Amino acid sequence: MQKFLVIFFLSISLILASCSTSKKTTYSKVIIDKRTHRDIHVPSIEHGTKRNELRNTTLNPNSIPKMSDAKYDIINYAKQFEGVKYKWGGTTPEGMDCSGLVFESFRAHDIFLPRISRDMAKRGEKILLKETLKGDLLFFKTQNRRNDINHVGLVVAIEDNAIKFIHSTTQSGVIISSLNEEYWKNAFTEVRRIL
Length: 195
Hints:
By secondary structure, the chain is of the alpha+beta class. The protein has two domains: 23-65, no CATH class; 69-193, endopeptidase fold (from Nostoc punctiforme) (Alpha-Beta Complex). It has helices at 2-22, 51-55, 69-79, 98-107, 117-120, 182-187, and strands at residues 26-32, 39-46, 91-92, 95-96, 125-127, 137-140, 151-159, 162-169, 173-178, 188-193. The strands form three sheets. The protein has a six-stranded antiparallel beta sheet. Strands 1-2 form a two-stranded antiparallel sheet. A two-stranded antiparallel ribbon has the order 3-4. Helix 3 packs across helix 4. The radius of gyration is 28 Å and the shape is globular. The chain starts with a helix and ends with a strand.
């Protein structure tokens, strides 16, 4: 009986030992990209990997979502309204005003901004004009009686040292303009980053 118990325990210990050496445990880690709030899957790391091997582990750049994916979606959504006539308070293809265009473009992607441009200008992070990127919002004071922010545009391109933005004007409806145009350059007040 004693010989049987020794063989039994020896067999169990060999089985356990063989499981721990041949079976590799992997750990998958998910982190959140603070810029896009999307999950990034870090490559699996085998149990027992040495610390210096971890330092050499790099993320596959194709697995990391681009920072501006949401911005491009919003820009493309806004561009579909190019040519729509101006309508005060409008947010549909039947007509829209400047803040209606921006409000609707962000809302369609589950980002809710205030409906009025001067209230939108209280959201996000105020940045320098030279830091402007696609998807940022430009705010203007177009010589209104209250001297408040009363116009907003969404940056859609930066090319040849010109910031291009989509917005809705009373005369032309939804159009793309350049901040280099004298009127918009003089009316410009600030730029804000929502995403």
